[in-house]
Structures
1.
Amino acid sequence: MTFNIYTSEGWDRMFILLVIIIVVVGAGYLGFAFYQRRTIKMATSVYESKKELNKIPLDDEFALAKKMNLTGESKKKYGQLHDKYQHYQNQMLPDIEQQIKTVKADGKGINFIKTRNDWQKANQTIKTADTTLKEIQAGLAQLYDLNKQHQHAVSELEKKYQHLREDILNENASFGPSIDGLEKMLADIEGTFDKFTKLTKSGDPSSADEVLTDLNAATDKLEDYMKRIPKLFASLNKEFKAQLDEIQTGYTELRSKGYQFPNDHFDVELAQLQDQIDNNLDLLTKLKVEDVTAANAKMAAAIDRLYAALDDEFKARPQVEKRTGMLGEYIKHVRRQNDDLAKRLQVLNESYVLNHQEIEDNHQYDRQITGLEREYRRQVDDMNAGEAVYSQINATQKKMMTDLKELENAQKALFSSIIDLPEKEQAAREALRKFDLAMRNKKRRIDNQNLPGLPDSYQNSFASVIREINQLDEDLNKAHVNIDDVSKQVIIIQADMDTLEERTGQMLDNANLAEQTIQYANRYIGSNPEIASASVKAQNYFEKQYDYAKSLKTISEALENQSTGAFSKIKKDYLAAKKSRGNVKPTAEDAENDD
């Protein structure tokens, strides 16, 4: 029974193994068949690429180039291209054929790696051959195109040189001394053109191309000269000469009318410019066109400067003549104003301390005016003597007008700073009178209160204000009053007076309220020990220490503890009565407590 079971399992295993072998063999066969098809396709693609090489008609192009009868460098280049083409036909094409056969043969085997390498090698060889053919074709095209271009250039240059000859002949007067040089230049170019023509006709486009480059450069230079020289010559022969004559005439005429020029070198500069004209004409003879262009530009600038010098003097004179009278009056006005200011300062200096350099500033103004007067007289003398350089005087007078305006403004500012000194003194004296009266009234108010005494701090403040008032009075009665110092004292005293007034009002209010509150509290002395004790303390502060604020605080707090609102009513009635009498306004503390 066991033996049969093992026999059945063995057959099953053999059957499975057989199926696997059949599948593997089938897969291998299918893979090999696919590889062979792919190899055939690769070989076909290589062959098709090789067929594309034959489409380039190099044989025809070589035949066409050969008919050009090339010589010299062109013939040498043709030979190099032909040798490269022979190498392509005799070496590269057979190699490609052999590599295609190798790829096909590889397709019959199973060496996949070798087949792919051979296929890549064949493709690379075809690419190299294709590049070689294109280089050969480009070289032949260049020879052909050069020859064609040169033949066209021969025709065009012949026409151009014919026009150039005609232009030189017809317009020879406009070239001035350059005509011989231009004709020689054209003759040299025509000689180079003959050489270019021979090389072109002989079939050597490569050598002809080198000559053509030089020929075009020389022709462009000649055309450039023919365009620029007439303008340069016209400037030298006509424009500059006419301008120099005009400048000479203008200069002579202005000098005859009394005009002067700063650093007058007109004669020398005109002679130098005339020499430069002759020198530039000589440079034109030698065709030094760039040198003449630069020299002409410098001459034009020099001529413009001479024109500007004439124009400056011509325009400046009427301006100076118009301004001179007005300037003289302006100087006189500023002089009179400064003299008046000096007199006023002298008077004020007898009564006041001038501590802002007013007198020194006035002296400085005087020195500046003296300098302006001296310069003005010199200008007038030069004009009367016919030696005036009007452009320089014009510039100087403009600055003088500015200086005079600044001086006038400074004088006005100085005048404004001193004109009100007497008014300020009077204002200070009026303030002193008011301060004195206010302090007397304040003392009378205090005396009317019949207070037992005054706190030391208050007496010190009162005495301090009195000292300040006395000092102000002393300073105002000095021989020389320092208005700045006095004005500052007035400001300080007013501030201290305001403070003292506030303290006075507060002290009197505290004293009156303390006295009324003590009197009101007396009704509770027999029944309330706390009020009795507070009343004794409050009277001691009031009569012995003169501390009315502390006296009021002591008795008012005790009274409020006994009868809430009692003190508030006393205070309210006091302020109402005070207001109805028209006494001084309540203090800030009163207003706050009242709220």
2.
Amino acid sequence: MAIKSRFLISTALILLLTGLFSWLSMRVLAEGIIVNWVERYAEKQIQYDKVRTLLPLIQEVNRSKEFAELESLKAWAKQPFNEALKQQALEETEAFRHRFADKSYFIALKGNEHYYYSEGKEAPPPNLYRYTLHHTNPDDAWFYQIMAKKLNLHLNVNPDVELGVIKLWSDVLIRDGDDVLGVVGTGLDLSGFLQQMVAKQDIYSAIVFTNNEGSIQLYQREELIDYSSLTKLSQDKSRVFQLLDDEVSRTQLTQALALAKETPNHVKTSFVYKDDVRQLASIVYIPEIDWFQINFIDIKGFLPLTEFSSLLVVFFISLVCALIVFYLLLTLIVTKPLAELDLSIGSLDKKQYRAPKLTRFAGLEIKKLVSHYQKMSTSLLEHQQELEEKVAERTKELNRIARLDPLTELYNRRGFEAHMTEYMQRWQQSRHSFGLINVDVNHFKSVNDLYGHAAGDLVLQKIATYLKNTVGDKGEVARWGGDEFLILVKQDLAAISEQLQDDHESLVININEQDITIQFSVGSALVEDSDTLESLLHRADGVMYAAKFSHR
């Protein structure tokens, strides 16, 4: 794979990974912003709810607490069978009744176990007694459990079937120091409260009000409200934890409830799974009513993935555009200059130099590389040419040496054969007559024996000079081997042959102050139509040996 393709693929992968990481980071950041916003929103919402809707409920609870502190009521509760104290207490409680929103209240005394109820009529009956409580009656269990647990405040949600409304009863203990004398309270119609706080809540959120143990007191789904929570068995209670999908979410919500109770009116958040959706639970503990307000928010509703699809499209288009621009820049800055450099390098194989053509877009590093290459290639070509010239000269010299006899610098056997072969090929065309003389030095061995091989080499050199001078430009002289020479004669074959045969005094060599006269045995042959090099050599050699043996 080409470097450009690999580079583009690597760049695309890096950009994709970077984009994915950025997108995920944006999601996490946006989710963090949503969580922070939900916390702030929940804190503001609880303050708003207190003023708008919870305030009447809190005021009703506070009035119930004030009601329980009436001195006449405490005095009667201490002596429940004292009629005078009873009348005095009822007069004061009836005066207090108009402060309750429902214009009603109840009194349940521990001493006589009587239950009194004023239902808000303008002219209440003189005796408010309704019935006598009994600990064996399941319907009266609330009374005994509140006193047993010494609950200073207990809110109890119950539906009124006859009236078709949902009532919230605020139960407050009548205390005299540590002694519990009874329970008083009032009822509040929560139908309007549910309509405002729950039924019309945002489609992406769900508000739940629970008590300390998580029992649902208010919820948009009325069938899940845990009515009469105090008197129910644990397994029969409808708790907020049942709305969650898994045990991990239930554990996290339990911990968040504990943290929220430690810091009342401050929001605590925890991620849970509800209705197969990851949701953010914001929890606020409201100490005035001893309840928790839990708001389940579907984060996807506030932060839908579709909102990010446009970002993905923009990122994809940006990625394609970036790759196109990157491709063009890579081509102009890197790959095109490299292609020019490759063409220039290829031209070196042909012993030519092609200068790379660089544009102004070529990268600085590429330009430096090309500059170094130009210097190197120019030097390389010059060195190559110089080397080739030297090799040619050396080859020529070697060829010359290979064809010449090193002692006499005449053609050696190999060189003379090559020369004769070329000459005979030309003769085949020109048919210009020529001949061959075979010259053998007489008694040369005695020179080596008497004077040594150095003297013999000197004699051979003198003979070579003599033969070249004798032949001149009429032929070529070669040392065939030892003391035997061959002469290619182009003209005057007979004259040269006779001169070499008859000239006994022209070649006298002084060795160790002694003159030695050199004589030759000569055989010659004139080329014929059917001759080859071998046949011509054979005939000249035969004539020479005949002459040599005749001298003996």
3.
Amino acid sequence: MSRTRRHDAASRWIRGAVALVYLMLAVTNLLALSGPGRTVMTLLDSATAVAMGVAAFSRRPGRRGEWLALLPIIDSVALVVVTGRLHYSTTLMLTLLGVGAAVTSRRVMAAAIVLGCGGFGVTVLAQSHPTGPELAYYSVQVAFAALIGVLLQEALRRRQGQLRRAHEKVRMVADRFEQLFNASPSGVAIADGDGRVVAANPAFCELVGRPETDVVGADVSPYLPEGVDEGELPVVRPDGSTRWAYLTIGNSVVGGQPWTLVQLQDVTDRHLAEEKARDSDRLLAAVAAAARRIRTGEDARTTIIAAVRDLAAADNVSLLEPVIKDGTAREVVVTDVAGADVIGTRVPLDGTSMIARVYRSGEPIFLADPASDPRVSAALLKMVDGKSMLWQPVVAEGRVIGVLAVGWRRRVETVSDYRTRAVGLLADETALALEHEKLLRRLERMAFTDSLTALPNRRAWQEAMDRMLADAEQSGEPLTVAIADLDHFKRYNDTYGHAAGDELLQRTAAAFSAGLRDEDFLARWGGEEFVFVLPSTGAEQAVTVLDRMRAALPDAQTCSVGVATWDSRETLAQLLQRADDAMYAAKAAGRDRVHAATDERRAVRNPAARNPAA
């Protein structure tokens, strides 16, 4: 029974008990009270009993049913109101204690306290109750009952939390044991004192060549040669094939009953020592080659795919990687291949294809006859001429980041355990290569990107300029550089704070980027300065473009822009110096303008434009 169902059963029992109590109270008040008070309390108690009874028989009362706890509070307050006697507040005290011990919701408990204590207070103020020791006594008792109710409710919540955590821990341990048992590469079976198999993991069933339904419940003795407790032995499968396994037997007594643990470790490859040694050398060479390429930052995909093809004796191997859109992988695409012409082929992940299944489950699948399986795309099989297929997930840190599709143009009845492990190991190397490449790209972006505005930084600008100067020299097209500096940015920071200043820089970067062409280049030079590179653009055209962007700055912010067009002879430093001088000339001329550099390469700067308030 789940925790929720147990909680509902307990809640129904409590509500039923409360319904019975209030039914008895209705009878008691009918007999004990007189006048209007008898009628009012009999009706209220009866209504409460009915409501609680209905909730008790409800199949799914839910957590919202705890709000029914306010009904007894209302009855208790009403009893004091209609009788006008303070000693009836004892019922309210007991009800507060009961609510604290029965409900788990802090909101319901708070509402009960407010309703109970508040109702008691309003009743005392509205009626002419004694103002002496009696009133003080009952007031303190009600408050004390409310406090005890809160403490009881908090103790209940903590106890339930402890029980829930203990239950979850036990369930987690059981789940982990089951997962380890089922995922163990060694065949494991457990037999009872009568020699019957009560549990067997998939590896055991696979090794003995029998389905679980045939193994569980059958006699364990066929797997336990007489007089052998440990050692190698042949396992003859129903299909006539023979596997070699290393047998380990463990005996124990649990609960007064003997149990036997049978472990079969597949060691067939030990009998294929020569082939295994040769394959091991090839695998190590492939892993070493992949590792070398990974360390040097090269793309290791081709090396790994070629190694998988060689070790699996396959005809073609494809690597499919996810295409991420809006943070979600909706399809995979073939990024590298050996032995087939399928580069760029895309497979959706929202379907029932075998590739989608392996990507979602993270488990490898081998099919000796994939053409007979409707989950395998006939079109893809035709493209690779696949008669048998193996799909191996590429997993990194518990996430599937790709799929290796291994195909044979001949029918392969089974893939040896060693070759399967080799493909799995190379899949791990593939994961390492892909993650290494992703890390390098991320580090490269970090090294060349300004963290505040997400624009290229000065280092990225330097590399871009070297390339763009070379292109301009070869093509003969003009190349213009501009430096923009926000006016009075220090004063803006002092007035609105640095957070607002950072936001202004981000919005300025967005405004500048929106006005550029794809071939233009924008970088944050530092502080409040931005640098533009406009290829195939002369000074006059650049001034027009930059003036339009200057006018589009957010919050009526202004900037001063200096423009310089490369004369095809000066160095990059000289070109940048002219743009910088032009920018300070714009500052000196009153700011909020675009100024083109003169033909003089070293104009005299205005010292006044160097003040920090620029």
